[in-house]
Amino acid sequence: AQSVAQPEDQVNVAEGNPLTVKCTYSVSGNPYLFWYVQYPNRGLQFLLKYITGDNLVKGSYGFEAEFNKSQTSFHLKKPSALVSDSALYFCAVRDTGGFKTIFGAGTRLFVKA
Amino acid sequence: SAVISQKPSRDICQRGTSLTIQCQVDSQVTMMFWYRQQPGQSLTLIATANQGSEATYESGFVIDKFPISRPNLTFSTLTVSNMSPEDSSIYLCSVEPGAGGETQYFGPGTRLLVL
């Protein structure tokens, strides 16, 4: 069975500082990994995904994520946080060949000016 | 990508009544999904709705309570039947437009409050 864990309910960071939002996963085969963001009172938006290839994936709004197979992790990162990055972030995983995406519990990011 | 609209955006309903939520996509897609989300919490998949076949429901969700229609490749409806306050939630429609892309696109959601 596939699962995904976001160990932090909330991450606080000062504007201009780097940010990391953590995600670990478990799948029986090779994973498809995703990050989505939800701004207040809005639907989810796709940020980036890892399917295959380079372990470092770049996405929207300056975000990137690093796939680490040995640690089964897919942490979301950004070199310099903006106040506008404050939102709810979801990591998601799908087993290769599967049809269902499993979403993590979400991590709320607060960026303070 | 895909642009998705949902109607209504929000509603307040009385217990025992039913509400039908519409989901319209700007392009033809095979796979559509309906999720439920408590504010600030994770998504729970209700069912997968593929055109031309019966919807596939996840554990804990049944067709009598959440009937789904998928008449064509751009439209779907989810009905929340015989509502109770426990059905108060945000209902999200999602599509997966790309062949092998696996990326999902979400509608803005329908915020439902049952009194």
Describe this structure as you would to a colleague:
The complex is a heterodimer of chains A (about 110) and B (about 120). Chain A starts with a strand and ends with a strand. Helix content of chain A is about 0%, strand content about 55%. Chain A is mainly β. Chain A has no helices and 12 strands. By secondary structure, chain B is mainly β. Helix content of chain B is about 0%, strand content about 50%. In chain B, strands 2, 4, 5, 6, 9, 10 and 11 form a 7-stranded mixed β-sheet that branches. In chain B, strand 9 and strand 10 form a beta hairpin. The N and C termini of chain B lie far apart (about 35 Å). The chains are: A mainly beta (about 110), B mainly beta (about 120). At the A-B interface, strand 5, strand 6 and strand 10 of A face strand 5 and strand 10 of B.
Strand content of chain A: over 45%
Q: What does the radius of gyration of chain A come to?
A: 13 Å
Structural category of chain B is: mainly beta
Work out the largest interface and the residue count of each chain.
Answer: A-B, 21 and 18 residues
Query: What share of residues of chain A is helical?
Result: under 10%
What distance lies between the first and last C-alpha atoms of chain B, to the nearest angstrom? 37 Å
* Span of the ends, CA to CA of chain A: 41 Å
Instruction: State the order of secondary-structure elements of chain A, H for helix, E for strand.
Output: EEEEEEEEEEEE
Strand tally of chain A is 12
Secondary-structure element pattern of chain B, one letter each: EEEEEEEEEEE
Which descriptor suits the 3D outline of chain A?
globular
Mean pLDDT of chain A: 92
The unreliable regions of chain B are: none
The outline of chain B comes out as: globular
Structural class of chain A: mainly beta
